[in-house]
């Protein structure tokens, strides 16, 4: 009995190791199948292309731009109800101001040379109310406000 008791931890360890190896094999097989079935490239050169410097225009969301830098950033639709989002305005104690501040920081800090911020006129809520500029931007006086 003593011999079997001492072997149990080793058996559990062996089962754990085998389970991990089988899981890795399934994962690798699944990835290989996905590459083959979807005609995807698995070469290093195609992977490097994703990180190459790009020319032209990149359209993205404020949330997805985090970590990237661009020569020029043009941010549109900076309206209350969009930044901050209505859910934050109604459900967060500071009415979404801290969230809007963080998101505007991310947007503004992505520009290397030029930054253009637009709070357009003429957008309405689903109830027909006019949308106004984000409060944080509305507090700033620019010489070129229209």
Automatic annotation (TrEMBL):
Signal peptide as annotated in the record:
none
Q: Which UniProt keywords apply?
A: ATP-binding, Helicase, Hydrolase, Nucleotide-binding
> Entry's InterPro entries?
DNA_helicase_UvrD-like_C, DNA_helicase_UvrD/REP, P-loop_NTPase
Coiled coil ranges (UniProt) are: none
One GO BP annotation here?
recombinational repair
Looking up SUPFAM superfamilies in the UniProt record yields: P-loop containing nucleoside triphosphate hydrolases
State the Gene Ontology terms under molecular function. Answer: 3'-5' DNA helicase activity; ATP binding; DNA binding; hydrolase activity
Q: Say yes or no: keyword ATP-binding present.
A: yes
Pfam families reported in the protein's UniProt record: UvrD_C
Residues in domain UvrD-like helicase C-terminal?
Answer: 34-117
According to UniProt, the name of this protein is UvrD-like helicase C-terminal domain-containing protein
Q: What is the lineage of its organism?
A: Bacteria, Bacillati, Bacillota, Bacilli, Lactobacillales
């Amino acid at each position: 009995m003593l011999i079997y008791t001492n072997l149990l931890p080793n058996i559990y360890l062996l089962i754990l190791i085998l389970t991990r190896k089988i899981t890795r094999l399934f994962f690798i097989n699944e990835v290989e199948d996905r590459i083959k079935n979807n005609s995807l490239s698995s070469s290093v050169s195609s992977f490097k292309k994703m990180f190459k410097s790009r020319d032209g225009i990149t359209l993205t969301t404020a949330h997805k731009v985090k970590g990237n830098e661009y020569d020029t950033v043009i941010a549109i639709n900076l309206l209350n109800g969009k930044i901050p989002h209505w859910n934050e305005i109604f459900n967060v104690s500071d009415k979404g101001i801290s969230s809007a501040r963080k998101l505007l920081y991310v947007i503004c800090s992505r520009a290397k040379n030029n930054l253009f911020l637009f709070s357009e006129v003429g957008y309405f809520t689903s109830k027909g109310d006019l949308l106004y500029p984000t409060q944080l931007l509305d507090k700033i006086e620019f010489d070129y406000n229209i």
